[in-house]
TrEMBL record:
Residues 261-331 form the Secretion system C-terminal sorting domain. Residues 22-150 form the DUF4397 domain. InterPro entries: DUF4397 (IPR025510), Secre_tail (IPR026444). Keywords: Signal. NCBIfam families: Por_Secre_tail. Pfam families: DUF4397, Por_Secre_tail. It comes from Aequorivita lipolytica. Transmembrane segments: none annotated. Residues 1-21 form the signal peptide. This is DUF4397 domain-containing protein. It comes from the Bacteria. The keyword Ribosomal protein does not apply.
Amino acid sequence: MKKILPIIATVLFSISSIAQTARVQVIHNSADAAAATVDVYVNADLALDDFAFRTATPFIDLPAGVQIELSVAPGNSTSVGDALLTVPVTLTANEKYIVVADGIVSPTGYNPAPPLTLQVFAMAREMAGNSGEVDLLVHHGSTDAPTVDVVETGVGAGTLVDDITYSEFQGYLTVPENDYILEIRDATGTVGVAAYQAPLATLSLGGTALTVLASGFLNPAQNSNGPAFGLYVATALGGALLELPSAPLGVEEFNASSFTIYPNPANEKLNINVAGMDLGQYTVSITDMLGRVITNSAINIDNTINVNNLSEGIYNLTVLDGNKVMVSKKFVKN
């Protein structure tokens, strides 16, 4: 990391005469041991020397309006000719981008082994639009993790990310500055994989824009005993990624059950069903996509919820046992 800022300064100086530029942040998320440190070139110029896994640059200016080549080479490279991967890109002037390096370099020892790639997200943000909110960009960069949902269970915000697959970005989510619990679940939304604390309020992160990355391996034994799976956060300032601390899972009781809500989209009522379970002891919270609680209520004796008074839009329905979140599902109100 100590070599990054001087080289960035050199690159900035070398492009200072270029009229059109774009702002770019680069994040190293390749968990392959062979890529523990890499060199990054812009065209033939060394931009990042010995760039470490789970490290991010700050946002830097790069030429826009012309094609440039971004290349990733081993950490001991001597020139761009040693590159493992070269990606031509044409950046839009005054736009902001986040570029994430994911994937595997080694020919053996990793299962699965998708190749090293650079994932580019346009319309990035360096700060949130409101000082009391946080803008979250989610990226799935774990090569052996399946398609997953991200469900917030701490304040009952419900499903934040639905069916995100390796290499994908979920566009920015704007959430109030609170302390959250993020559960990673399988694509059904009922089987918990892991849970993490996201203490945005405790860390006073209001007004910031963050990138949350799934990183590492769910099964290190099948991946050269590499770094374990976790959620990591990059800030616009760059530096070492922040590891989110783990939290208890809260969905075990529903793992063997089939949770459904219907019809979806709904007009007047939602029917709720969890096979083999009596829902009489539970309550329901409905939140909008900003995490604001619209209503809290008991489940009707016929296992229905009245949604007639909701405005048209997308909501999360969360089933609670007291203050414990059992399961959440997204639904559409027509």
